[in-house]
Amino acid sequence: MMSAERTVEEKPAKGVIKYMRNKNFILARVVGVALAFTIAVCGCGGGGGGGAGGGGLQADTTPPTLQNPSVNPSSVGPTGGSVTIKVTATDNVAVQSVSAVITGYNPATQATGSTTVNMTKGTGNMWSGQHTVPPMLTVPPGVADANGEVTYTVVITATDTSNNKSTANTSFKVTGLPPGGPKP
Question: Where exactly are the structural domains of the chain?
């Protein structure tokens, strides 16, 4: 009887062990497939993501390129007028926006100030914007230089879709003022 009990006890134990080995094997295969899938999708090739051998996407760190910034006309008379600001803006991905900050004498406040012009994309990679230069008939002494000119600086900034920025500078003048400003 003893040996019969042993046989009965061993068979279920062997069956359980075999069953568990099967389940562990299946579990190991499922985990292995899931890990392989995760590596393939995430691109985690041991390189920390990105770069050679690392897979994944690289961040765009290249700023836009600005060429041929201009203001037309490059000068206006003391009665003011409209100027057009233009620039060619390109990027390795896409240019999101271009703006121009114009800094110079503001007759309304009788102080130096800045105004921003949001530029719009035209044909190809050309961006442009309009600015109205106010009349300078009441410019105080010392605002105009010795040639009777007031210079405005224009800083054009292009921003790409990854928020990389680059700038280009140009300028325009208000001419025809008495040298050193009008006399009182």
Answer: 1-58, 65-174
C-alpha–C-alpha distance, residues 125 and 64, integer Å: 11
CB 36 within 8 A of CB 44: no
pLDDT tens string 18-69: 655 666 656 556 666 655 555 555 555 554 444 444 556 789 999 999 999 9
Whole-Å CA distances, 19 to 11, 12, 116, 173: 12, 10, 75, 89
Question: Domain 65-174 is classified in which CATH homologous superfamily?
Answer: Immunoglobulins (2.60.40.10)
Q: Distance between CA atoms of 116 and 155, rounded to whole angstroms?
A: 10
For residue range 81-138, list pLDDT tens digits in order. Answer: 999 999 999 999 999 999 999 999 988 888 899 999 999 999 999 999 999 999 887 6
Cβ(160)–Cβ(95) below 8 Å: yes
Measured CA to CA, the distance from residue 165 to residue 171 in angstroms comes to 20
- Cβ atoms of residues 87 and 119 within 8 Å: yes
